Design the sequence.
DNA sequence: CGTTGACCTAGACCCGGGTCGAGCATCTAA
DNA sequence: TTAGATGCTCGACCCGGGTCTAGGTCAACG
């Protein structure tokens, strides 16, 4: 029989999150979890539903460029429990700003790339001879 | 006296681009330049204005997440000269798509982060007790 | 003169973030 | 009962992208 739906093995968590077992164990070693990952009688990891929820946030943080070290700091704050919410908020806001910045940077790059794409399109459209972008 | 404005030393290029000498030399070794970097009589690098222009594009590519290997492929195409513009265009378009994707991903992350920021703000605003985001 | 500063090469090192493998334990199904 | 999954730990490895060092050349300045 299977355990309660919120008692997941590492393999199940992999399946749900797309992370590899290796990565999951790495994250644990690196202290990214906001609560000790429990073990069953045989020493195997047991993840709860909220461990997974937390992981999903971690994945968002990663996908938005937050380094593991920052996630660890955040996790530590959560582990310490009630009372430091303003610090957590500060951290989140700082990361938010980084992400906004990054989007702006990418958008600026995109404009440049689009410009160059336009140049090439035009060049090709008119079967233009002569090198685009070569030494003068 | 100084050389023509378009004949730059590596140090001058660093100053103009913000890249370190190390990085500039690395980029050259890695074949990122679209034209051989010339040398003066003493073996010192001499950069032309368009080398710098090219570098500026490279920096945009990097900033938008293009790996060095891809920049190298692009540079090779340019080095080969006239005739492969459609391939270059394809490469640029593919990268463009990657960037657009990435912006979308970041925007999605931003929403999640903003949501969590909102949760914390509310929590703090009402001096709420009880842990936000702790094991149930 | 000698020292200072900009440059050269080759190669080592570093960091972040995984990814993999060896060697072992346990459960399950054929 | 034995093979196959699945899990465990620990430590090695890998990759991308720099960054730094040692040891050397040269020109110009005081």
Sequence:
């Amino acid at each position: 029989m299977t355990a309660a739906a919120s008692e997941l093995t590492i393999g199940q968590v992999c399946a749900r999150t797309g992370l590899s077992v290796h990565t999951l164990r790495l994250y644990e070693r690196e202290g990214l979890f906001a609560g000790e990952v429990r073990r069953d009688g045989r020493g195997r990891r047991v993840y709860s539903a909220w461990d997974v929820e937390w992981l999903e946030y971690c994945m968002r943080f990663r996908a938005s460029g937050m380094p593991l070290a920052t996630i660890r700091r955040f996790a530590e704050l959560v582990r310490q429990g009630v009372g430091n919410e303003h610090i957590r908020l500060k951290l989140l806001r700082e990361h938010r700003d980084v992400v906004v910045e990054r989007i702006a940077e990418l958008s600026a790059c995109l404009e440049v790339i689009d410009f160059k794409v336009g140049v090439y399109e035009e060049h090709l459209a008119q079967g233009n001879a002569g090198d685009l972008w070569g030494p003068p």
User: Anything to note?
Assistant: Residues 85-125 of chain A form the longest helix (41 residues). The beta strands of chain A are 38-39, 45-46. The mean pLDDT of chain A is 93. The first strand of chain A starts at residue 38 and ends at 39.
